[in-house]
Each structure stands twice: as structure tokens, then as C-alpha cells.
Specification:
Mean pLDDT: 82
Strand content: 35-45%
Structural class: alpha+beta
Largest sheet: 8 strands, antiparallel, barrel
Order of helices and strands: HHEEEEEEEE
Distance between the termini: 50 Å
Number of strands: 8
Radius of gyration: 22 Å
Helix content: 10-25%
Number of helices: 2
């Protein structure tokens, strides 16, 4: 009878621990979702997809830690094989990006706001062309950036 009681007690403990662990996961995932104003460059690192209002073609962006400027990030944007460099920062939920086709001159700017309750995974704003190389010749386009899955 003693081995049966031991098995019962072990099983009871395992069930109780598993249920408590599940509740802790739900609480921690909500707690790990920063407010828009709490987003830092660390939250921005990773792969993003950009969609532009009135353009069928989007873009893919990659943000990484800036090796020289603490509190900033850098990366690249790819629009159907056309690549440009990016450098920017995010402060109090406001994103500022500079885009350069030649690595020397600013060809476009991205000004956006982190969407509240998106956990820092969606940003909306306006892309402004500062060169004459926009995909459709327009001076600006509203955009939505969404962080791709797999990047936390």
C-alpha cells in the first residue's frame, strides 16, 4: 500500500505544479508587453515587413544594434531587390529612420509611432521621399511596419 500512496502523492504534486506554471505563463506574457512609450531599440531589432498605402509593393527591413551609437539601431531595407541602408532610433514611442541609397546622402525618412497595445510589434507613420527615386514618384506614403514572427 505504501508504494501506491507514494505514486499518488507524486502525481498530485505534479498536477498542482503544472497548473500553477500555466497560470504564471499567462501572467508573464501580459507583463512582458511594454507600452508604446517604453519601446527601446532592443525591442526594434529584427526583421520587419513594411506595407505602403496606395503601393502594391512593400519592403522588408532588418534592424540591428548600431555599433557606434548607443541607443540607436541601423539596418537595411529591401524593395524587390533594391537595397538601401537605414539608421534610426525610437524614443517615447516615436520612430525616426533615415534611409540612404548610396550610404552618403539621405534619400528618405520614416517618421512613425509605435501602435499602443502592439507590444512594440507594429509601427504606423509616414515615409517621405527626399530624392527623386520613389517607386511611384510620390513625395510620401503612409506606412505600417509589422515585426515578423520569430523575432522577439
Amino acid at each position: 500500500m505504501k508504494p501506491l500512496l507514494t505514486i499518488f502523492l507524486i502525481a498530485s504534486c505534479a498536477l498542482a505544479t503544472g497548473a500553477r506554471g500555466q497560470n504564471d505563463l499567462k501572467t508573464s506574457s501580459t507583463a512582458n508587453c511594454p507600452a508604446a512609450t517604453e519601446i527601446s531599440p532592443l525591442h526594434v531589432y529584427g526583421l520587419w515587413r513594411a506595407e505602403f498605402e496606395s503601393l502594391s509593393q512593400g519592403a522588408t527591413l532588418l534592424f540591428e544594434k548600431h555599433p557606434e551609437l548607443a541607443g540607436s539601431f541601423r539596418g537595411a531595407v529591401n524593395r524587390d531587390g533594391v537595397k538601401a541602408l537605414l539608421a534610426g532610433d525610437v524614443d517615447q514611442g516615436e520612430l525616426t529612420l533615415e534611409e540612404s541609397l548610396d550610404g552618403q546622402h539621405i534619400s528618405a525618412t520614416w517618421l512613425g509611432t509605435v501602435v499602443e497595445n502592439s507590444c512594440g510589434k507594429e509601427i504606423k507613420g509616414l515615409w517621405n521621399n527626399t530624392s527623386n527615386q520613389a517607386p511611384d514618384g510620390a513625395a510620401s506614403h503612409p506606412f505600417v511596419l509589422r515585426k515578423l514572427p520569430g523575432w522577439q
